[in-house]
User: Fold this.
Amino acid sequence: MKKFMVLALGVTLLTGSFGLAVPVSAETPSTTNSNLSTQELNQTDFDFMYKEFDKYGVSKDTQERLITQYKNGHLWEANKPNSKPISTRTFDSNTQISTYSDGSITVQSIDLPRNLLEGGTATGGSGYRIYSGVKVSHSNINMSANFYADYVIVSGGPSYISNVYTPSVGVVGGTHSDKSLVLRKEREDFRGPAEAVLQFKVTFYGSSASGDYWVKLNVGGGNAWESHS
Assistant:
């Protein structure tokens, strides 16, 4: 499992939070909601991948090699569940990049919206901060998944997730199915943090088999973080 933590100090959550953000672009990769067959890659797909690789600092040689591999039906290391990165780096205040042995990357982020609701003082003097419309996301460039969440960080008490919604999955030239967003555990307790999980199956371009993937929001201990398969 890979995870990237956002720490809270006192009663506030630090704004330098992390996780996978794939920016919305005028050029959108081709996707479908069925995993019965894969699509042909088109120029829009290539342009999208090159643009994302450029944005996150992947060298031209590595881009060409990875995209050629993908065209030939080979998965990148970043696409393989439980694959371990060889390095991580901070891209900006909201984003962390993990690099794998073949040069492929994952991009993680938890994007805090500007219209955060300020909390006051809870009963017993405990503080809290309410977060609404937070985007939890993960990307491998050729696959992305995200959802939105509302949650509350409580100082001196159990933090909790109040709502999760608007799940989205995209696969460049491939397909996805069985998308399910579940608030698995509403409130943190002695056993661990509150959890919301987006689960889905993906069939990548050139592959006949689907794989199971998930992206999870964890809230507890004054922290919020994203983890994924």
Q: What stands out?
A: The chain is about 10% helix and 45% strand. Residues 2-38, 119-125 have pLDDT under 50 and may be disordered.
